[in-house]
Amino acid sequence: MPSLVNAERVSIAFGTRILLDEVSLGLSTSDVIGVVGRNGDGKSTLLDLLTGRREPDSGQVIRTGSVSIGHLGQDESFPTGATVREVIVGGRPDHAWAADARSRAIVTQLLAGISLESEVANLSGGERRRVSLVAVLLAGHDLLVLDEPTNHLDVEAVAWLADHLNALQGGGTAMLVVSHDRWFLDAICTRVWEVHDAKVDAYDGGYAAYVLARAERVRQAAANEARRQNLIRKELAWLRRGPPARTSKPRFRIEAANSLIADVPDARDSLRLKEFSSARLGKDVFDLKHLTFSLPDGRVLLNKLDWSIGPGDRIGLIGVNGAGKTTLLRLLTHELEPTSGRVKQGRTLRIGHLSQAVTELDGTERVLDSVNRLKRETKLATGQEASASSLLEEFGFTGEKLVTRIDDLSGGEQRRLQFLRLLMGEPNVLLLDEPTNDLDIDTLTVIEDYLDTWPGTLIVVTHDRYFAERVCDVTYALLGDGRCVLLPGGIDEYLALRRRSQAETVTSTPATTSPTARASAATRQARKELARVENQLTKAAATIEKLHHAMGEHAADYSRLVTLGAELTTAEAQHEELEARWLELAELLES
Predict the structure, then answer these.
(1) How far from chain centre, in Å, is Cα 159?
(2) Model confidence over 115-158: pLDDT tens digits?
(3) Alpha-carbon distance 48 to 364, whole Å?
(4) Percent of the chain at pLDDT above 70?
(5) CB–CB of 174/30 below 8 Å?
(6) Where are the alpha helices (DSSP H) in 242-294?
(7) Which one-letter DSSP state was computed for residue 355?
(8) DSSP state of 251
(9) Under a CB-based contact definition with an 8 Å cutoff, are residues 327 and 320 in contact?
(10) 551: buried, middle or exposed (CB in 10 Å: 19+, 13-18, 0-12)?
(11) Which of 114, 317, 381, 568 has CA atoms 20 to 30 A from the CA of 65?
């Protein structure tokens, strides 16, 4: 396959810390590579080097001259006053870009509920993130470099994005993807690059294949070390004895990857944890009676919900953005009052609530001081005492990180510290709102390990399918119409339910809408579009005037005139399209 990007003996350092040391790698057409590693180990730096956004200290990165690279970073930057339409399709009207079914699908799936005429600056952080993703996907690049593309996407959108990227890969598009979403990586990747200790290890296959291959490498390394230690002991014994004793060479057989996990017990003993949890919590945890919650605009998020949550329950809560998942957690903690009904809490509850914000952290404190101020020792689920420093080490805070100011930590490190501080309070109920945001996979594994032996009631709001299926025993869905339903089939059942609901909506709309109502709706839509077109005509005319003025100023600069002339041709063509559309709409409204 044609090569797109190659790195040859690339090195880069920040201060005294070497992030990458003589790394050589490359990717070709149709490669979909997942990049994994701990926060701060150099994943984003590697992406910046390969895309040319950063230059290496030594070595070189060779990119095919004609390759087009689309980059989705973690920070979005937009022109002042830019609208969604201008960002994603260069301001073109709907009839000019929506004729392509794939483009329509991208906008429909990822920008549902967002007006294309909205100014990007007025959108929420999650909405701006989706606008950036749509702009990259619509541009038709040869190589997509995506840094955490699933952030702020619900589970349904993540599943759609995986299918879409697989279709692009089938058409020859290459991808580099940094993501903590292991289900997503497993669904799209053909290879995995692990960034660690200033080097990059490559593995064939998706995330599951990577885990097996890495486990096999670790096993072989342990076996080699055991053999080396055995040889050292024999050499020492020989030195003491004199003449060498006759020894047989140790036999070693490499087993198949599946045998690595064939005899591994379940991650947790749910029955034992429930018994332990009942002893800590009693019989009642949360009891919801006819719980109703309505927004000021009249929309009902929860409608007469009856739900009893018991000790040791491990519940995953999913649903589209805006369905009321965070609201439900805040109702459970009494941060919000219901419109009607009630939430009864058990008497012995100690609730740990991990919110999506990290505002409770004091940015001026040092990491170790922040934890010590809470408690120097805490009791783990096993009953053993654990010092603050040992927990910090387990969560990746060692060396100079212990005395780093919290404001100087990355977003992922602050999120890690937030979770650690939550555990120091020894809660017996954990409410986790998007706990995987900004965390690397190794940290998620530590958290999952901890939760495996944690004997309490757990409610997790997450769009991360892997995490939800890993730590939860049952899944519930908020459907956005006030209902909260149990999903025996898990997230797959939820996606099937959503597909059926959308299909029924599409087929029922023509039968329930009168011709008069449809005509009225069409007229309103036409008026809206006419106003938009008039606004765009004004902007296009101003752009043309600016270009004419610029050409007058650069009359002696031939190369600059050529560039301005091309921009002018494009602007005038766009102006003509807008005028034609304005005439069509005007005639429609007059008829």
Answers:
(1) 12
(2) 999 999 888 778 888 999 999 999 989 999 999 899 888 888 89
(3) 30
(4) 82
(5) yes
(6) 259-262, 270-281
(7) -
(8) P
(9) no
(10) middle
(11) 568
Are the CB atoms for 585 and 530 separated by under 8 Å?
A: yes
Place of tokens 């790698």: 25
Query: Model-level pTM greater than 0.70?
Result: no
CA pair distance 439, 38, nearest whole angstrom: 8
Q: Are 395 and 317 in contact (CB under 8 A)?
A: no
User: What pLDDT, on a 0 to 100 scale, did the predictor assign at position 246?
Assistant: 37
CB atoms within 10 A of CB 408: 12
List the structure tokens of 186. Answer: 């497993």
Query: Judging by DSSP bridges, how do beta strands 314-318 and 457-461 pair with one another?
Result: parallel
The three-class DSSP label of residue 6 is: strand
- SS3 for 322-388 is CCCHHHHHHHHCCCCCCCEEEEEECCCCCEEEECCCCCCCCCCCEHHHHHHHHCCEEECCCCCEEEH
Q: What is the pLDDT of residue 266?
A: 56
- Give the least confident one: 142-146, 288-292, 299-303, 379-383: 379-383
Distance separating alpha carbons of residues 277 and 447, to the nearest angstrom = 19
Of 5, 66, 28, the closest CA to residue 169 belongs to 28
Bridge partner residues of 63 (DSSP): 5
Model confidence pLDDT, tens digit, residues 172-206: 999 999 988 989 998 999 999 999 889 999 988 88
Identity of the residue numbered 294? S
Alpha helices in 171-303 (DSSP H): 182-188, 207-241, 259-262, 270-281
Q: Rounded to 5 degrees, what angle do the CA atoms 410, 411, 417 make?
A: 90
- Please give the full DSSP string across 529-558, using - where no structure is assigned: HHHHHHHHHHHHHHHHHHHHHHHHHTTT-H
- Pairwise CA distance, residues 388 & 591, whole Å: 75
Which residue has tokens 């004609």? 66
Q: Please state, in angstroms and rounded to a whole number, the distance separating the CA atoms of residues 272 and 455.
A: 9
